[in-house]
Specification:
The complex is a heterodimer of chains A (about 290) and B (about 130). With about 290 residues, chain A is α+β, with helices and mostly antiparallel strands. Chain A is built from 9 helices and 5 strands, in the order αααααββααβαβαβ. A 5-stranded mixed β-sheet of chain A has the order 1-2-5-3-4. In chain A, helix 2 runs antiparallel to helix 4 and helix 5 packs antiparallel against helix 7. The radius of gyration of chain A is 56 Å and the shape is rod-shaped. Chain B is an all-alpha fold and about 130 residues long. Chain B has 2 domains: about 40 residues; about 90 residues. Chain B has 4 helices and no strands. Classes of the chains: A alpha+beta (about 290), B mainly alpha (about 130). Chains A and B meet through helix 5 of A and helix 4 of B.
Chain lengths: ~290, ~130
Amino acid sequence: MKTHSLLIAFVCAGIGCATTAPTELVDAREAYRRASTGPAVQAAPAELHVANQALAEAEQSFRDNPDSYQTRDLAYVAQRKAQLAEATASISIEQKSQAKSKDDLQTAQGTAVAKTKQDLGRTRTALAASERNGEATAEKLSAEQEARAAAEKRAADAQAALAKLAAVKDEPRGMVITLSGSVLFASNRAVLLPEARTRLDQVAEVLLTTRERHLIVEGYTDSQGSVNYNLDLSQRRADAVRSYLVERGYQGDLIQARGFGKDSPIANNARAEGRANNRRVEIVIEHEPRASNP
Amino acid sequence: MKRAFKHQKEDSMRHIFKFATMAFAMAVAATTIVAGCASAPPLRTEASASGIRAAEEVGAAKVPQASLHLQLAKEEMENAKALAAKDQKGMAVSMLSRSEADAELAVALSREDAEKAEARAAVDRVRQFRQENK
């Protein structure tokens, strides 16, 4: 029908029909041509068919009565029908676009919900792990507190025991056990006397109850003799005590030996008694336990 | 003389009668014509009027293209009424078909505009949601 209508129009134009088509009919033909080559073919076929019929009616009227008002009005209506088909097609297309956007939005929302659920699941897992970790930390903390309390008790017990063996003093640098030099060594010697070993055995027994503590064995002399001599003697005496304690089982990397010579006297070197007191070995038990250095 | 006067009088009477008869016939004819016109069905504008009303209700006046066809529909309906008043029924009915077609198109163009706007809004909603949930 479409082809038939257009064919008539072209033939008339080609052979120069006596009557020129009215403007309304020309416009109607163009409107139908545009509509029939656009989206209306697929999206508004019914409306396009109606437009085709309207154009055919107008063409027939034009053939029957070219200059009549009926022809012009029919052509006018045919043009409007073609425009209506285009508008209807556009409506259909826009509605499909809305439907697609709605689907896209639902898909995006679904994805977001799934992601949120995943994140929530991960957060819950992490929270549960954190809670378990917290419980483990609490348990560990409690165990550490118990261990610390036990260590402090041992230290207190050791201090009490040491106090029975030697002079013990709690100083900022640690608990200091002072052993008389004359008890440990012969004069100007750095070899432990037999009775010194007995005393050191008792000290070692106590010290081993605080095995984790870092010890510093410090050797001191009186002021008699040269500086170098006293430094050397005090160092060798400190080494001797250290070696004995290590033999007795104390961890070697936790115990150091230092000689200070005549430095840090605790008594008056002008008097014999004072010099005797200055000739000493001090074992410093540091307050905080330190990890052993490999 | 009396005879001639009598003949003249009779001729005048015949003329008057003839005239009266003609006048009567014309009056009868005129009455018939008038009676015939008075009984002709009125122009049916309901379809056009309801089409125009529908276009106004969907807001065609606010959409440029739709507004144009709404205005055309109104003018064409008035033209049809005027033609009917001039006893040009055929042209009036034909003009009404224009009015109905323009009103129908005004409704469709108004709907098309609304659907386009809604489609744009739907696309914007998707874009915005995706941006917010990256």
